[in-house]
Amino acid sequence: MGFLSRLSKAQRQQIFGRFVLSWMPTLSYIMVAVSFFWLLALPHQDYSKRTYVSENALLPGSANVQFNWDDNLAAEAYRDTVQRIASLPSIERAQALELQFAAIGLKSATQNYTLSTSTESFHGVNTYAVFYAPRSDGTEALVLSASWLSRDKTTNTNAIAMLLALGKTFKRGSHFSKDIIFVVSDGEAEGLQAWLKAYHGNEEHTYERYEEPLRVRSGAIQAALNLDFAGTGDYNALGIFFEGVNGQLPNLDMINTINLISMGIAPVELTLHDELVPYTDNMTKNYLNSLRKMLYQMKYQAVGTPTGNHGLYLKYKIDAITLYGIDRPGWHSHRFNLFRVGALLESAVRSLNNLLEHLHQSFFFYLLSDVRRYTSIGLYMPPVIILGVSFIFQALSLWGLSSDLPLELESIVEGDTTIPVALPYSRRSRNFKVASSTMGMAMVTGAATFFLLTTEFGLVGESPMLKLVASVGVCSMLVLSAVSAAHVRTRIIKSASTVQKARASHNDTKGSSSSSSSNQSDNTYNVADQELTPAADWIMLKTLILALSALIVTTLSALNFSLAVSIGVLIVLPYMAFRPSRWTVVSIIEALILLAISPPGLMMVASWWYAKDPSEVLSWVLKEYEILGTWLLPTACFVYWPLNLAAVIMVLLPVS
Amino acid sequence: MAKGLSSNNAVAVFGTAVALRLALFQFPALASLLGERVEISTPVTSFKRLSEGVFLFTNGVPPYDGGVVHQAPLLLGLFYPIISSPLLVNLLYILIDLAIGYMLLQITAIKDKDYAKEKKITQYGGKEEEPGMSGLSVATLYLFNPYTIASCIGRSTILYSNAAVAAAIWMGMKGNKSLAMFNVAVATYLSLYPSMLIIPVILMLTRKIDDNDLTKKVAIRCTGLFAGSLVALFALSFVLVNSWDFFGSVYGTILTVSDLTPNLGLCWYFFIEMFDQFRPFFLVVFQIHVFIFAVPVSIKLRKYPLFVSFLLCAIMGTFKGYPSVGDASLYLGLLPLSSEIFKYMRYSFLVTNLFMYSTLLAPIFWYLWVYVGSGNANFFYAIGLVYGIGEIILMIDSTFALLRRDFESQSPPETTGQDAALGWDREVVQK
Amino acid sequence: MKPTSILRYIALSVCLATTLAISITTNKDDVEGFFAKSKSQSGHTNNWAVLVCTSRFWFNYRHIANTLSMYRTVKRLGIPDSNIIMMLADDVACNSRNIFPATVYNNRGRHLDLYGENVEVDYRGYEVTVENFIRLLTGRVAKETPRSKRLMTDDQSNILIFMTGHGGEEFLKFQDAEEISAYDLGDAFQQMYEKKRYNEILFMIDTCQANTMYTKIHSPNILATGSSKLNESSYSHHDDPDIGVAVIDRFTYYILEVLEKVNMQSKATLKDLFDTYDYNLLQSTPGVRDDLFERPLDEVLLTDFFGNVQNVELTESEEVNNSLTEADPALIDSEPMFIEDPQAENTSSPKQSASWSQEQSHNFEIGNPDQSQTWRFVAFAVLSVTMGGALFVGSSLV
Predict the structure, then answer these.
(1) Domains of chain A, start order
(2) What distance in Å separates the CA atoms of residue B82 and residue B155, rounded to the nearest whole number?
(3) In percent, how much of chain A has pLDDT > 70?
(4) pLDDT tens digits, residue range B199-231?
(5) Total structural domains within chain B
């Protein structure tokens, strides 16, 4: 019939399957390389675009500012007042400030709060005042906030003086569509957090957490500017901080607005964060500067800590940034004083006042390599997805190798016709019991660690570090018991199978001789009567680890790109390359490397890097979780550590 | 009876299941969080709405007037005496969940008995095919399925419908016509779609009858029993709430998909986007689509009524207007009843991954859409689609596996001649 | 007979004959020729203006200022408020963001408050919709629509239609909610032509890619001009830094610059206006479409559209009725309001549609005794009643 040259479907599938399985591991390593290269290329200028204001309503800097010389004098007078009251106890300075706001003619009040974490306890008083826009319906508001403590750990004098002066300026105007709320918060983050909670009506009244309900209110907050102008002097440049809790970002138009204003009506040198980078024509230097800025952003996003109090607003769907006055004597740029800051802030508020709805036109997902250049999600997401896919490819190739479905065909002989057919099922059974129970145990251990760390038992000498040491102990017990049990089991099975094999080979010789005598023409490869030994446990466990890693990296990237990238980059090579070795030394080295990238290992690395005590690092992580609700601790305990534990167990499992 | 239950293993499994659920119920925040999740409780299964209904009923207000309550009147009657005690409510949920596990165990036992009588398939290495999973494994898979646990802790009322389905299958396998039909009727009464299970349950009841006329007679009697039970249930409901309003509120809501709260299903987004004039047409198309598979599937796979009931439950859970993970927990619980087909399945890796990804990503995208505001409805719906694809691939793959095993049992690899050439993927190459 | 009496008689006869001859030979044209429509004259008897601002929101201040400026100009040149239909979101004057409450300015100098005098906005806020605009043009307004919201033009009306807002290729957005396409506009004008609702139209549009908006007009006697060609944006002219927004668009600004020098007696023509178009000033390519327009542009006075010059028309007695029919608002009132929404048609009960069609056929007989038309209409009415009934019965069954 002329079909001689044609392969059957089953044969084509077989060839394809073999090809794919043999190339998949290589392909996945190539993909990892591509992903790494892509990530490194992101800061390059060709990958970013210039930012632009997307929201038509904003009209940044198109109106004259009304902040005049008198206001500047007022600001300076307020500065002295703030300086005077700064050293008073919380309650007294809050009340003094309340009076100052009231004197301007704003409705002002104070708010008490108490917050206890597992390690320390905070108490403070916030002051806030509302300027009710005379011609608006009071359904919307903007917030200008400053905390008493600047990020330099000095008094935020200029910022608070600025709030008062702006209050005075705004009081003259009648062109506001939104009320303006001034908040001076106590402490670092906890003060503003307490105020925001109370403003949105979910204040708590327990012993550990108490937030006084607010007496003065306004409408829904549309946007917020947090001010950080430490000291009483002038500034070289204005830094923008924008990373919020858990890597959440404000709408890019927030930054674009300030950017436009700083180039026009209130000229100041603008930069990201607190770094002043000299402009160069040197490509390499520019690249390195961009890389540093991006890494700075990604670092804060990954650990989930906001870079300023603006980050707290983001949890309530309020776009916010922190404006930080950088004072670096000797820097070449023109210094600017409160007058310029006032103009800039007034213009920014005027712009936000123009908004008709929440900022939504511009990006919510971006990486900034410079204050005027952004990389959009379409460009930075692919490397993470590629990482995820390379995990899946590795898992798939292991999964494929643990069966013989795509590799083997069986053939049926009828007279002079041979029919190659696909195997109906894998002859090698895949037993997930060990893999899934190991993974389950690891997850339970992780969860237990989390509850251990976040619960107070009221024991004597109880400390987070002690708890962590305890759970590390539990983990090592788990690893030891799982590994030793597996080795013992393998030895038993081996001894049993040698006996079986001897019997089987005896049977085989009998069977094959009889079949060959009965059917002489059967010279084709026939697998029908073979059964293969089950796939090794480590293969199953590794498949599971890789599949879960892909799951974690890709799903996390939707929530927090930087965290996903950090995890992906950290684990991709060890998890893909490591496997139990015949040489115990290699296995142990692999296990040690995995231990180094386990949460306790990373904690040690961090404490060495920042030259701090490990217990300090741990209590910092705990505090961030308890106060701000960052995801670093839950992610580490529920996701990262279990995978790491399972991987440690995997490399120590017997080879066959 | 209950050979499995007596063993220590069974006590351990069921005990752990109870302990786990009791422990989780100790966190009321968790229960209310799960109860609010759109993936777990839908407008027709939400415990919150049920409580509202019971409250209205208690206070003499017609519960179905407000358009909030979409659960059947008898559920109101069931919860009326116990709703004031959360402990009793939680215990009821746990009890029902355990009962489903127990029934799955019993069904496996009956199925194993049937299986023992059949001709064994020869495996590689010349061994006979081993029997499938033990009843206890099946029950364990159901009881510790995260979907089941989430559904139970979230107190979704889909559980009662699921229990009725499981009971119907158990009674069907056991050969108890009236109870089987009554349970199909209860399931139908609670959530309408299980009405199509009447076909596989009749297949189970008649599986040992060779006589064609007798089969027909049994089928007709069963249909009568079903109709009678259903009418009785309706009459009972009428007596309870003293009005027929519940028809519109319970079944009207199910059929017209009038509550467009997002869920894991495929309907809500369509009907939000759709122009009103096309709505009736597509409504009919969507609803017929759910029911249309019942007959062909039952004819093609009539030898495997257990599998048919799995497949129909999976179809319901995929295409109904308000699907939730509770539906998945039912059909994922029924699938291991046909565990002998597992090794013939080809896409288990893919399906598992699709389920895992959609389970994780659905809440994440919901968070991005509703809380953070940086995502939108398309994100969440896309995950609904991924989940739907996972379900559909599972159905296709398991059906393929069943047919492949069926083929294998009729023509084992040694077979020569025409049978082999008739196989759907056996292509003949002539030499 | 005395010769004098004969002479007198002859003179009388001559007089009579002359009178007779004059009365016989003089026709309407000669009398009307005094006012008549020649190539150089528009022949209109009334002027209307439809001024539409399709934007809303504070940052579109300039569009509202454009429209109000144009309103002020046509009013200055004599078109009364009753003949100006203004569609305006009207949300900037009293916007809380307006630093000068209850004013609208079109110039940084703020010499002239456009909102200061008597401003009559006919369609305000959310009434500015595509549907209302098309109904207004075509006259298919609801019965209860007040006079101020009707364009009561006839075949002797010159209409100025001015539109401004945000647009694109062959569309113009209405308040960010919907859009009108160039085809919709062309169809509306064709309906106006068929219904003899205009003599001449000047269509002006100031938006991005404005010239694409008049490409689909195909009805005669329409002159169109737009601010920018395909793929070109139209730009604002300048900001007022106190108000904080752009206050006027370039195209409107430079047109106003010309119109400000025009008074009611002015003999300036449209050609003069179009000749002032300058790419360097506008930063876009303005366009003029005159292929549908019969008169040469250098003979079309600006006041033919922007002003209100009352021409007088003499009519013979039998024509009086006709023109009355056209102009009588009472009869326009009873003109059928077509319901285009199919759903609305579906849901209207058969009873209603029956009474509606009866009424219409009745009107029809009075206005137009053409038998075949009447029968066609009766057939239509019967069919629509049957279909309505069938739909009603069908829907109630379903």
Answers:
(1) 59-371 (3.40.630.10), 437-504+578-656 (no CATH)
(2) 14
(3) 93
(4) 999 999 998 888 888 999 999 999 999 999 999
(5) 1
Tell me whether residue C166 is one of the annotated catalytic residues.
yes
Q: Which residues of B touch C (CB under 8 A)?
A: 276-277, 280
The C residues from 129 to 168 touching A (CB cutoff 8 Å) are none
Over residues A470-497, the pLDDT tens digits come to 888 888 888 888 888 888 887 887 777 7
DSSP structure class, residue C398: -
What's the pLDDT tens digit per position in A557-615?
Answer: 988 999 999 999 999 999 999 989 888 899 999 999 999 999 999 999 999 999 888 88
How close C244 gets to chain A, by Cα (Å)? 4
Choose the most confident range, by mean pLDDT, from A283-297, B124-138, C10-24: A283-297
Query: Would you call A141 helix, strand, or coil by DSSP?
Result: strand
CB atoms within 10 A of CB B141: 18
- For residue A502, what pLDDT is reported? 65
Which chains are adjacent to chain A, needing at least 3 Cβ pairs under 8 Å?
B, C
Distance CA A522, CA A637 (A): 59
Q: Which domain holds residue B26?
A: 3-344
Q: Judge whether B422 lies within some domain.
A: no
CATH fold for the domain made of C46-306 = Rossmann fold (3.40.50)
Residues of A in contact with C59 (CB under 8 A): 56-57, 59, 354
Structure ipTM = 0.85
Q: Which residues pair with A228 in a beta bridge?
A: A324
Segments making up each domain of chain C, as ranges: 46-306, 339-397
Task: Mark yes or no for CB contact C96/A350 under 8 Å.
Answer: no
B124, A392: Cβ pair inside 8 Å?
A: no
Report how many helices (DSSP H) and strands (DSSP E) chain C contains, helices first. 14, 12
Q: Is B312 exposed, middle or buried (0-12, 13-18, 19+ CB in 10 A)?
A: buried
Residue C233 forms contact with A (CB below 8 Å): no
**B286 and B257 Cβ atoms separated by less than 8 Å:** yes
Q: Residue A428: what are its φ and ψ, rounded to 5°?
A: -95, 120
> Nearest CA of chain B to the CA of C244: how many Å?
30
Percent of chain B clearing pLDDT 90 (strictly above) = 59
**In contact, C248 and C106? CB cutoff 8 Å:** yes
Q: What is the DSSP string of A236-299?
A: SEEEEE---GGG----HHHHHHHHHHHHTTS---EEETT------S-HHHHHHHHHHHHHHHHH
Q: Sign (positive/negative) of CA torsion A628, A633, A635, A638?
A: negative
C53 among known catalytic residues: no
Does B280 sit within 8 Å of C343, measured CB to CB? no
How close A174 comes to chain C (CA, Å)? 6
In chain B, which residues have their Cβ closer than 8 Å to the Cβ of A431? none
Q: What is the pLDDT of residue B331?
A: 95
**Could you tell me which residues are beta bridge partners of residue A116?**
A121
In a domain, B301, yes or no: yes
Per-residue burial over A466-495, b = 16 or more CB atoms within 10 Å of its CB, e = otherwise: ebbeebbeebeebbeebbeebeeebeeeee
Please state, as a whole number, how many other Cβ atoms lie within 10 Å of the Cβ of residue B149. Answer: 19
A444 or C355, which is more confident: A444
From chain A, the residues in CB contact with C98 under 8 A are: 175
- A59 and C243 within 8 Å at the Cβ level: the answer is no
For residues A165 and A78, give the distance between their C-alpha atoms in angstroms, rounded to a whole number.
Answer: 7
Cβ–Cβ below 8 Å for B280 and C398:
yes
CB atoms within 10 A of CB B268: 23
Gap between the Cα atoms of A38 and A378, Å rounded: 12
Residues A11 and A8: their CA atoms lie apart, in Å, by 5
| Residues forming beta bridges with residue C85, ordered by sequence position | C50
